[in-house]
Amino acid sequence: MLRGLIKGDNAFVPTAALRVAVRNGVDVAALLVTEQGRVRGDADIVFDGAPAHPSGAVRLSAGEDGTVWLEAGLTSVEEEITRVLVVASTEEGALRDVRGLSVEVFGPDGAAVVGYEVSDAGGETAMVLAELYRRSGGWKFRAVGQGYLDGLTGLAVDHGVDVDEDPQEVLERIPTPAPPAAPPAAPAAATAEAPTEAPAQDLRFTRDQLLDMTPDQIRALAQAQTQARAQAPAQTHPPAEPVSRPDASAWTCGPVFKPRTVTGRDNDVITVKDLPPGPVMVELAVKGGGYTGLWRLDESNAKGRPLVNTTEKDFRGRVIASVPEHGRLRLRLEASDSWQVRILPLAEARRLTEDRLENWGPDVLLHTRGTADVTFHFKGSSNFIVHLYRLAGHTDPTTLPHPGRAAVNEIGARRETLPLPEGPLLVHLSVADGLWDARLKDVQPHSGGQDADSPAKLPKPRGALGWLRRARR
Prior knowledge:
Elements lengths: L2 E3 L4 E4 L3 E7 L3 E7 L11 E2 L11 E5 L4 E7 L9 E7 L12 E5 L5 E6 L8 E10 L2 E11 L2 H8 L48 H6 L2 H17 L28 E6 L2 E5 L5 E9 L5 E6 L5 E8 L5 E8 L5 E6 L3 E8 L4 E2 L5 E4 L2 E5 L4 E7 L4 E8 L17 E4 L2 E7 L4 E8 L2 E7 L32
């Protein structure tokens, strides 16, 4: 008989070959993690680009009517793996827009064993729906329902996926033929009778081709390009004009560290230790209604200006706080139900682009392009307040420049278009209790050369990082 669980519940399942159905129309992945809650490498991520784990224990297949199936042979799971996480994500919109989001486990005989229907999804775009985990010599199923407002990136970082590998220094501007399996041979010099093929440095690759390349292929191509440049006659290809590129260190502000997560319920004092000093994002999600307030505590335990002050039901959002020099951030939270607090680096802020970015509640956005206009559509009925922090030329990572007066300070549903200076720029929606969306328009080239979000900034080449493409758009 099917046991329908609620969030946080668990139940034993047969240690056998199980089938896990995830509905309805979401992208699905499985993460095989160790006792430390981390994957050992890309091979421990099973998704549509890598639908089978090397051990054969977990396989992914698409079904009908928006259902995705995971085949989990529990007897074949390696001893080092203690949990199999079932992950759902959306490419467009939020998980609250998914009707009938659920996960259901079937035994070897096809009978339903246990299930969980997600009933409280919000603005998250990625979620650990459930997990199969070892317990007392067998296996159990837990209804998790842990969502991530920062999508697959936040979920991946929390579980040890390396999201930092960057081939930017290896390849340059690039879009067409398939990548070579081995380094291409250096071209011979062109002659009038027999023109040569385009030299290696002129090869062009698409975004998807680059995402499918391995690090070895990237290095091989870079070596071939370097060799071809050295051997090409000077008169064949006149040197290109140098392109001024922005210093990568100028495109983020504040310390970089592994995100921290704290959970609890009702009123509490939250202490997070060993953080690097400087501005950080505080992501808060509270279940239920009633009053929600969040303050940073100073050295005397006095509350400062409220970071969150709302009566909205199921509040969620991101605000900015500052970690003092001793690296100990203390927060006072008043809430009437369960909550989750995550401390994130500002570098994890979502970037503004010409694509519509939709969310609920306060948020921190990063603008890295040239001058542009940003259009907001706020659909709530209370305050909508936006501050701008100009990071260009700001060299102290432990502080933020003063934002000045609010760029937007209005009440009720409205559309608002702001002219933005050249990035980098933090756009802080400090109060936004309601749905909103934002997008850039009339974007101009960055005076420093290539924009950080332009196609010339290559995506990550490792195969498993294709799983994270949507999180970087």
